[in-house]
Amino acid sequence: MNRAITLICRALASRAGVLGEDHPSTLASRNNLANAYESAGDLGRAIPLYERTLADQARVLGKDHPNTLISRNNLAGAYRSAGDLGRAIPLYERTLADQVRVLGEDHPDTLGSRNNLASAYRSAGDLGRAIPLYERTLADQARVLGEDHPDTLTSRNNLASAYRSAGDLGRAIPLYERTLADRVRVLGEDHPNTLASRNNLAGSYESAGDLGRAIPMYERTLADRVRVLGEDHPDTLGSRNNLAYAYRSAGDLGRAIPLYERTLNDCVRVLGEDHPTTQTVRSNLDVARNG
After folding, report:
1. Alpha helices in 65-149, H assignment, sequence order
2. Which segment of the chain is annotated as a signal peptide (predicted)?
């Protein structure tokens, strides 16, 4: 990820120097850099860059330009990643309404925004709004994009997660299993979305009390994420936390506590003291030590 950020920074500097700060290609590079920072877990740099890019695109391209709408969606996503749902949800709602008006109900960007809004509702614990919105989005994406389109697979994964959050493992687990199988077939074993599906399926097995299936799947997912994404990727850190949690659930504190300690140190170093993942790992470690 550090190499990607370096390359995007160079491209941004070159475009700004040759084309100017306000050229659409320069603005696109700035959005890409913000996205790279967000993917690396550096929300402290991602959010201000998203905010600046959105303001410049609205000024240069107009509030209704598709690129402006995409930037607004991206900023809402960064707010959500930072746990700031008070800013994320209204921005998602506004973006969706504008995309319906400008692009139409069935445009892929509109469908993506509807999925993102459902995810924000789920993060806020509002499953009464999240689940029907996920179900509608999945049906529309299957109809418009096809059953095997990556966006359709993402929506199916997210709907399974909402079912799991609602305690409906009878619907969540089969949907996770189907999505994982389809992602392996369509995207490949090592695609980040495939790894996410495997992590989620392991979590649903754990929720069902089936640690015999959950722990080996968590272990495999962690090993694959280290190999594919690297030791410090936010998804890798999340997998390490999940595996430690499963060890603790199985009563194996001898493996859980050292894994939590290592993960906490890495989260502080990579993500910072105040990142939601860091706070979650710290809380889990406290419970493992004192519970």
Report:
1. 66-81, 85-102, 108-123, 127-144
2. none
| Residues 22, 196: Cα–Cα separation, whole Å | 37
Domain ranges across the chain: 189-291
Q: pTM (2 decimals)?
A: 0.85
Q: CATH number for 189-291: choose from 1.25.40.10, 3.40.50.2300, 3.30.450.40, 3.40.630.30.
A: 1.25.40.10
Taking the alpha carbons of 212, 218, 219, 220 in that order, is the dihedral positive or negative?
Answer: positive
Q: Which two tokens stand for residue 221?
A: 């997912």
Task: Enumerate the H helices of the chain as residue ranges.
Answer: 2-19, 24-39, 43-60, 66-81, 85-102, 108-123, 127-144, 150-165, 169-187, 192-207, 211-229, 234-249, 253-270, 276-290
- pLDDT (tens, 9 = 90+) of the chain, 291 residues, equals 678 888 888 889 999 999 999 999 999 999 999 999 988 878 899 999 999 999 999 999 999 999 999 999 999 999 998 889 999 999 999 999 999 999 999 999 999 999 999 999 999 999 999 999 999 999 999 999 999 999 999 999 999 999 999 999 999 999 999 999 999 999 999 999 999 999 999 999 999 999 999 999 999 999 999 999 999 998 999 999 999 999 999 999 999 999 999 999 999 998 889 888 999 999 999 999 997
